[in-house]
Write a structure and sequence with these properties.
alpha+beta, Anthranilate synthase
Length: 434
């Protein structure tokens, strides 16, 4: 199993004197964003054919430790306070924004990073725009946005052969699940989220641009991302803020479905009424609501869980909305909510101790906040799920898991972990959902 990539200096600080000059220009034509993901794409945030794709880095900050969120946020807000921004579009993701990926644990050897791209192609509500950024000087706008963002690379026609190596055999992983369930039944925790890593090696170089395009077309309702070394298609929004309000979508409780189908109505009703699934879901919702206290007020929660349907997998989902306290940023909220019971467990400290004992490797960017923030502090931070770490040009490490409670069955939990790896495996292979 390959090690996850490590930065040369996980505690590196950003240049605290640079002044960014940001220019956003409207594009007076319809742009198919998925048709213009550059081969050397630096970052991406995509949903329903909208979002951004980026090139290069004009500024970046790397942080580590328990205060990694606050340190990154402070550095970016200081940068934003002295930036010169000319934005003729003024929509979400135009002007000055930074894309970020944070590590799961404060003890992680993988850095948490915020990056302002050199160039960005965006589409919001059908309006297209180009942003370019200069460092201590005016940026140069190209004659055409297509000079920076030509047509996306054409993927190979045939499925690409892959070598797939799970970290554990089925029996080994199921034994770990049983051990975690034993800890729960002994009263050490009420819920624990256990995950499995799978190394995937390709005979040909992996193309993040092709992977992103495949994911975005196959799973349009998810948040498809590429930031630093992580790429994936998350169905779970941790913290989205805009105009003083926050939205969080909580997923916990899952049912794999064969052949990318959907549950029939009898099975879906049983799923929605399953005591084990409802218990797991309630822990996750409660953790979000409790941690928003002090940051937000006027909380509203879905009256009951609804079923979120994705190809081959259905989830119990609840939406939480609230009004934020003045001055609270999207990254403040993400830091407060991470890790929620949906990816850690409850109580959090005890669940993380069990996870550390049973998972032999640092989670890195898995199950962590990934997304973007603008100069006002608004942004979107999903949980990095259905994901892979890109280790080198031919190797990716996938990671997926599920929540365990006292009634969890090891065989079913293993099947769920495998189902959650399917989107990334298909994006790597070039397969489409049935």
């Amino acid at each position: 199993m390959p090690a996850l990539p490590l930065p040369p200096d996980a505690a590196a600080a950003a240049d605290d004197s640079a002044t960014l000059v940001v220019r956003t220009q409207r594009i007076e034509e319809t742009v198919d964003l998925l048709g213009h993901v550059p081969a050397d794409v630096g970052g991406a945030w995509l949903r329903h054919g909208q979002g951004v794709v980026t090139l290069g880095a004009a500024w970046s900050v790397s942080t580590a430790g328990p205060h990694r969120f606050a340190a990154a946020s402070a550095a970016f807000r200081a940068l934003a306070s002295r930036a010169r921004v000319d934005d003729e579009v003024r929509v979400r993701t135009s002007g000055l924004i930074a894309l970020g990926s944070f590590s799961y644990a404060g003890s992680s050897t993988r850095a948490s990073t915020l990056t302002v791209p050199r160039a960005l192609l965006g589409v919001h509500d059908g309006e297209a725009f180009l942003t370019v950024v200069g460092v201590d000087e005016e940026p140069v706008l190209p004659p055409s946005w297509r000079d920076l963002f030509p047509s996306s690379p054409v993927p190979p026609r045939a499925a690409e052969p892959l070598e797939v190596e799970p970290e554990h055999t089925p029996d080994e992983y199921q034994a770990l699940v049983q051990e975690a369930v034993g800890e729960i039944r002994a009263g050490r925790a009420a819920k624990v989220v256990l995950s499995e890593r799978t190394a995937v090696r390709s005979s040909a170089p992996l193309s993040p641009a092709v992977m992103l395009t495949r994911l975005a077309r196959a799973y349009p309702s998810t948040w498809v991302y590429r930031v630093e070394d992580v790429v994936g298609a998350s169905p779970e929004m941790l913290a989205q803020t805009e105009d003083g309000r926050v939205f969080s979508r909580v997923l916990a409780g899952s049912r794999p479905v064969a052949d990318d189908g959907e549950l029939d109505e009898i099975d879906r009703r049983a799923f929605r009424a399953d005591a084990k699934e409802l218990s797991e879901h309630a822990f996750a919702v409660d953790s979000v609501v409790e941690r928003l206290e002090g940051l937000a007020e006027q909380l509203e929660v879905s009256p009951e869980p609804f079923v979120l349907r994705l190809p081959g997998l259905e989830h119990l989902a609840s939406d939480v909305t609230a009004r934020l306290q003045p001055g609270t940023t999207s990254l403040d909220v993400a830091a407060r909510l991470h890790p929620s019971a949906a990816v850690s467990g409850t109580p959090r400290a005890e669940a993380d101790e069990i996870i550390a004992a049973l998972e032999p490797h640092d989670r890195g960017g898995y199950a962590s906040p990934v997304g973007w923030m603008d100069a006002r502090g608004d942004g979107q931070w999903a949980i990095a799920l259905r994901m892979a770490h890109l280790v080198d040009e031919r190797t990716a490490v996938l990671q997926a898991g599920g929540g365990l409670v006292a009634a969890s069955d090891p065989v079913s939990e293993h099947a769920e972990a495998l189902a959650k790896c399917r989107p990334m495996l298909r994006a790597l292979r070039g397969e489409q959902p049935a």
